[in-house]
Protein 1
Amino acid sequence: YHWRHIKETQLSKLNQTEIEAMLGSYTKVLFVRDPFHRLIATFLQSMGSSPSFSSFVEDVLGSGIHNASVAWKPLVSLCLPCLVQYDYVVMFGFLRQELGHLLWRAGLSVDSLLPKFTDTQVLWTYRWLSEQMFSELSAQQKKKLSHFYRWDLSAFPFSSSYLSD
């Protein structure tokens, strides 16, 4: 196929047969993170653009799914887990152990290739931040956010998310 000779290929530029051949020839790994944690991280990175987390959430909800920034757009609409059969789904908070398993499965040395991850160490910070920022939101905002991320919450095991029903 011609896509094998192209440095970067977007699936949308290929026909169905080429897409199936391409996806079938790779190990597909999807990295996911609790949508509420993604919102918090985006808010913290863009401090100053919104006066409060609550107003930032209003901007997110006002953008709608189709006009949403990649930073907070629902993962299901970005990575199509119902169409692409991912071989591995790696959750933020378990990067070291899950990537170690992937490297081991690939026959690679785990210790020499993995950097030091801090995702498991910062989970307690996100728990605290989630509690604080979730308390800033109105009941209506909480309900709308849960609806906005309903497919992510159904597709991935975010059972401890503040947005889970």
Protein 2
Amino acid sequence: RNFYYITILRDPVSRYLSEWRHVQRGATWKASLHICDGRSPTTEELPSCYTGDDWSGCSLQEFMDCPYNLANNRQVRMLSDLSLVGCYNLSVMPEEQRNKVLLDSAKENLKRMAFFGLTEFQRKTQYLFEKTFNMNFISPFTQYNSTRASSVEIDKQTQQRIEALNFLDMELYDYAKDLFLQRYQYMRQKEHQEARRKRQEQRKILRAKQAHLREQGENSSSTDYIGNVERW
């Protein structure tokens, strides 16, 4: 069996707002063990943002203010190899170095995946998946522009704050979008080349058939003429 890693990335600001709304409704990740290098992080390495059973009802400001919030740069963290930076132990290396290692690791792992898509490009994502794995979905993907994240109205200052909290995800998404569109264009060119090759083969076969028919017609005419001469 062949196993392939695939993922779907999302615009970091929309993804962050969506997670906030999810948490606000009572979602938690208590079942997630965050195991890295064979162990889970200690409470000192990964403090909780809230007390009690969940963080339901938290405001966006409270969500942004928690320095331990795993929503920050989640896509980079989940795509990177955390063992390279000592897992959740922030004292292993300086923050600037840690960020660079995480971002480079996330980019490399994304590039090596057999397939990844972007939430903001549903049709292109479907096209790439189908061409990559030679499979077809029953119905076309639908681009939903109305989401829980899009229903949240934020001012420019709040958006800039979210972008700053997710600056690694912002850079990763720019890289991912560029790579995604490159792969899409490559597949489209490949498809056009294959279609052109098939048309050329069909024209070649058609010309061969026409030549064969002409040859048969010429032979038939010669045979008829010789037969008439013999009768005359």
Protein 3
Amino acid sequence: RRLYFDTHALVCLLEEKGFTTQQSEVIVSALVKIMNTNLDMIYKDMVTKVQQEIALQQVMSHIAGVKKDMIILEKSEFSALRSENEKIKLELQQIKKQVTDEITKVHADNKLNLNLEKSRVKELHAQQDRALTQTDRKIDTEVADLKTMLESHKLDNIKYLAGSVFTCLTVALGFYRLWI
């Protein structure tokens, strides 16, 4: 159980490295105590072969008892649990089918609503496009009318200007002729 080593050789080695004899002996003594304490702790956790065989027999007897209990439970309780499990499986399948049907119905309703909204949005866009086109046409017509009116006024102004210039020239020529 004990670990033996040459303590005198270790003391001599420590003395060669510069320790005094008293220091070397104290260090070796501390190492021996530490090692003995560690070995005692290790050996406390260990079991002998006889103890191990007894524990193994006890475990095997417990396992045999559990096997007997399991066989009894399997014959009585497990059959009840299996039948209950089958009932729950059937109920779950029915619920699953109902949920699937509801999901399909909601999906179809949502698809229909989405298509209706798309149609409404398209119609609204078409109305807005028509209104925008009509507004553009009105603006273009008004601009064209304004351009025509501007050209008409420009021509009238040119006529009046030309008439005024010719009138002034005629008057000026008349005065010029009178002077000459």
